[in-house]
Amino acid sequence: MMTMERKPLSAAVALAMLAFAGAARAQLAAEAEPMQKVEVTGIRASLARSLNVKRNATANVEVVTAEDVGKMPDKNLADSLQRLPGVAVRTDYDEAEKVSMRGTNPDMSLIIFNGHAVSTADWYIVDQNSSSRSTSLSLVPSSVLNQAIVYKTAQANIVDGGLAGTINVTTRKPLAQKERLSGVVSAGVSYADLPGKSAPDANASVNWKNDAGTLGLIVQGFAEKRHIRRDSVSRLAYGASSGWDVINTGTMQGITDASLAGTGLTAADLNGVRMPGSMSAEFVEGVRDRKGGMFSLQYKPNDRLDVTTTGFYSKMKANNYGRLTSGAMYSMLLGKADPLGGLATNTSVNGRQVFASIRNPVIVDQTTLYGHPLRVLQSAEIVYPDSTPPQYIGNSEAFYRDGATAESAFLDLDASWRASDDLRLKLLASTTRGVGKTARDQGTTWARYGTGVAYRLGDVDDAPFVQYFGAGENRPGLNPDGSGYTMVARTASSTRTVDRESSLQLDAEYRLGWRMLTTFETGLRYADHRRRNNRTAPAFRAPALGTAPAGYVSYPSDFGKDLDGKFDNTGFYFTPQALKDYINASIRATTPEFERRVVNEIDMRERQSAFYVMQNFDSGAWSGNVGLRFVRTRVNADIVAPLPAGACLKTEPGQPAVPCPAYPGAITTAGDGSTYYEGVPFDPKAGVVYLKTPSDRSFDNFLPSLNLRYEPRPDMVARFGASRTIGRQNYNVLGSGYGTPGCNASGCTVTGPNPGLKPLTSDNVDLSWSWYFAPRSVLTLDLFHSSIDGYVKTGTVTQGETVQLVDPRDNTVKTFFVNTSSQQGARIKGIEVAFERPLWGSFGITSNVSRAKTKVDDGRPMVGASEWAGNLGGYFENERLSARLVWNYRGKYVSSTTAPAPTANSQGQSVINGVAMPTAPTIAKGVATLAASVNYTIRPGLVVAVDATNLTNTKRAQYRYSEAEQQKLDVSGRQVYVNVKYRF
Questions:
Q1: Is the pLDDT of residue 328 over 70?
Q2: What ranges make up the beta strands (E) of 419-574?
């Protein structure tokens, strides 16, 4: 497995080294010829500007410029950043969204705009509710970029919060433009080949400045739309143990020696064998309609004063429709018939429970990622006994997320005043807000009845074989023999997450000019950050599901064609309008207060205060800075806690709020488990009443930093960096709700968050060497090591954290110990190699490869960490044509959420065949993608651009203990963008 994953990177390194050998020969030849002055433009000019910034920086940085982005197949900032050494991205529907650095997960990287935080939002409901600190760049088109600097080593004057690194994205300033009036207009179309749909694409910006060059304005607008589709096979379903589990013949009574006759196996041989609990086909369609704009107003009346205000707004409409057809083999073997995954309902034939058996089993051996031996049921027929009438065998569901949107906005004021020849003062004030919302997540669930399911797993990159027996056609409704589908559930809910921050920063820079001491910098920063997550759910008119939606639509005939497997690719769903009409007809009007679901709320405030000092120095070949940053983080969380049953009466919708004298502040107006059926008296004692418990914690951190730059000769730069950085915990582990309180003779305990979790800190060392052996050329080697303290360890273990809650036995307030998350250490060490070089004629190459080894104290893999990442790009450019082909690789990583619930058992053990081993996370297999960009100049100022992403239509695979346990496989198709650009 490891050998196979390194091959693409080995090829990239080999190609880079061959190019380097040719470059060295070219340099020797060039030294013998007279120098000529040549004006360089386009791709080569952009690379030169980026290398110049990197070369002169004190810290170890990577750089992307606006010109470079304009010549790349990048649609947002994450696309652009993934081309850099040590940077990887999380991709959804083949658009990069979340950025991670040096083998860490996205929560450990800080992305700032113009030096301040920016609140972004997620469009997908699962991400909206994740409470992660990672920044989604799907709202930020690459066209807004002026320059992005990736700080791999810390400096005291950089905003704290980037444990693994900080990315500062700057937008354009109008007075920096050459012409008094200039602009660019781009219009075109995007085409997605999997859904077979096209959409308009437009972008325009105008830059103006007065004749004196003291006042300037940039205005930009964008409207970009594209259609998405994802075809998947997975283990996701409703049945018991819908992922992977082990066979237990003690509870799976249909597995007997007799049922296995002729296979050479006995029932005992199957005990402990791993098997997929379900087989599912997922079909998702959606749209991403991104609109917004930016402005920048700059006033610079003289050389001493410079004031710029910049505003940005982006909103993306992203309605999406997910459908699923699944088998429930594990439930069948257990003799269970609960289509929603429970174990209370049994199969029944004349009142007798019936169990499915396993026929024609094929068992393969595997080795887990922890080195333990396991066996996997690679293929089998899971069938009920002959002549058994149709029983529960699976599900079909369809959920339409209507009003799914994401918004991001910021406004900043950046002022610089040179008070004297030696003193410069700076002010940066900003406010930002991000909103992720799904107006209604609505759908129906159908139970399927038949006599069996057969499957056969293949390679992790191929869809499995799946076949259903005795189930009839894949359409809604029951057949006369009892096979087919019946509707068993309906749901509707909404979610809204708001993230906002206001900040003020004051900086001073004083020029000393004393020996090697150049400038002294100091500053203050204060930020007030708030995070709220609210969920709601309407009340239904009656418990009965009523008449099903009218009409249905079958899956398209080409569903799953790119997954390279033979499986039942049929399915059904209802049109969005039919589903919405059905849900709307089922809902009873109540009040917003009653629809509120307090149990899921997160309500937090975080105040960050910082003070720093930094001394810069320069003695010729040696330069650098040394600094210290003090940070105080104050976290306030209103944590939801349940009250004893019957302690407070609930308020009927539309009536005045019922007070609860015993617990002032109790939220009696929310539904939370109450029904409100028509014709049924309201029960004020139904459901759960919640109270919010405040928490107030403060954490202090001192963050020293040192950066040394050594230039032994004009074409070489060596750097050393040492620092302590900080990263803050995800919101949910600090402020999600308490649950399951209980008391006994040993005391009282409750599950919930741990507001006492301190911020993560990392002690970092970085050593790099760069050789600028020719114009627009560089060879860089970088070694780094980070030791992390405070890495979260989710679970339910008593940590000494307490909270005052009500003992449900006697309704008195007592001290409860919280079973919650803890903290541990982790380490990262790695190497990065980068190479850039113009080659012969108009050709050139850019390449990099990185390896980051991570280790967590408990031996589990670090979530989101890829050991290998790399890029290989080639370009061609002349007066008319510029073209770029970019290959990107990211190695395998744990793809579980980066923001698990504080009580999620990430430290769980599984006992299989008597061997206790860590429970396997979900692993995303390494993936390579290919993108291209071509720009052709029709005449000066008029360009036709064609960009294409995911050219190889990459399949993305996930697995569990080993690649023999495929968890998910999906494809999203290619995206092509054709635009005409006019510059004036």
A1: yes
A2: 423-450, 452-456, 465-469, 484-514, 517-536, 539-540, 553-554, 572-573
**The pLDDT of residue 71:** 61
- Show the 3-state SS of 678-732: CCCCCCCCCCCCEEEEEEEEEEEEEEEEEEEEEEEECCEEEEEEEEEEEECCCHH
Give the integer Cα–Cα distance in Å for 873 and 838: 12
**8 A C-beta contact, residue 718 and residue 769:** yes
d(C-alpha 542, C-alpha 588), whole Å: 9
Checking if the pLDDT of 32 tops 50, the result is: no
Structure tokens at 475: 């359409």
Q: Return the number of other C-beta atoms located less than 10 Å from residue 107's C-beta.
A: 25
Angle, alpha carbons 218-224-229 (nearest 5°): 155
Parallel, antiparallel, or unpaired for β 812-838 and 747-751?
parallel
CB-based contact 604:678 (threshold 8 Å): no
Torsion of CA 873, 878, 881, 884, to 10 degrees: 0
Which one-letter amino acid corresponds to residue 794? T
The three-class DSSP label of residue 38 is coil
CB distance 601 to 738 below 8 Å: no
Query: 374 with 366: CB under 8 angstroms?
Result: yes
279-299 and 357-367: which strand pairing? unpaired
What SS3 class is residue 841? coil
Quote the CA–CA distance of 815 and 838 in Å, as a whole number: 68
Which positions ≥6 away from 645 have C-beta within 8 Å? 685, 688, 808
Phi and psi at residue 320, to the nearest 5°: -145, 150
Residue-wise pLDDT for 687-702, tens only, equals 999 999 999 999 999 9
The Cα-based distances of 369 to 83, 698, 904, 965 in angstroms read: 29, 39, 21, 12
Q: What are residue 588's phi and psi, to 5 degrees?
A: -105, 135
* pLDDT, tens only, 489-514: 999 999 999 999 999 999 999 999 88
Q: Which helix (H) or strand (E) holds 270?
A: helix 267-270
3-class secondary structure, 86: coil
Q: Which residues pair with 616 in a beta bridge?
A: 625
406 CB-contact burial (10 Å; exposed 0-12 / middle 13-18 / buried 19+): buried
For 918-939, how does the pLDDT look when each residue is reduced to its tens digit (9 = 90+)?
A: 887 889 999 999 999 999 999 9
Tokens of 916: 């206790």
> Which residues lie below 8 Å from residue 78, measured CB to CB, with a gap of 6+?
89, 95, 96, 97, 98, 99, 137, 138
Residue 671: alpha-carbon gap to chain centroid: 31
Instruction: Give residue 935's identity as a one-letter amino acid code.
Output: N
Which residue bears the tokens 């409860």?
816
Phi, psi angle pair for 666, to nearest 5°: -60, 140
pLDDT in tens, 355-406: 999 999 999 999 988 889 999 999 999 999 999 999 999 999 999 999 999 9
d(CA 417, CA 419): 6
Residue 546, C-beta contacts closer than 8 angstroms, at least 6 positions apart: 582, 585, 586
Structure token pair of residue 373: 């031996």
The predicted-structure confidence for 195-226, as pLDDT tens digits, reads as follows 999 999 999 999 999 999 999 999 999 999 99
Q: Say whether pLDDT at 294 is over 90.
A: yes
Is residue 75 within 8 A of residue 225, CB to CB? The reply is: no
First-to-last C-alpha distance (Å) of the chain? 53
**239: pLDDT confidence band, cut at 50, 70 and 90?**
confident
For residue 596, count CB atoms less than 10 angstroms from its CB and return exposed for 0-12, middle for 13-18, buried for 19 or more. buried
CB-CB contact of 900 with 790 (8 Å)? no
The number of CA neighbours under 13 Å toward the Cβ of 232 is 26
Token code pair at residue 641 = 């806690």
Tell me whether residue 274 is exposed, middle or buried, using C-beta atoms within 10 angstroms of its C-beta: 0 to 12, 13 to 18, 19 or more: buried
For the record, the structure tokens of 856 come out as 């967590």
Give the Cα-Cα-Cα angle 224, 229, 232 (nearest 5 degrees): 150
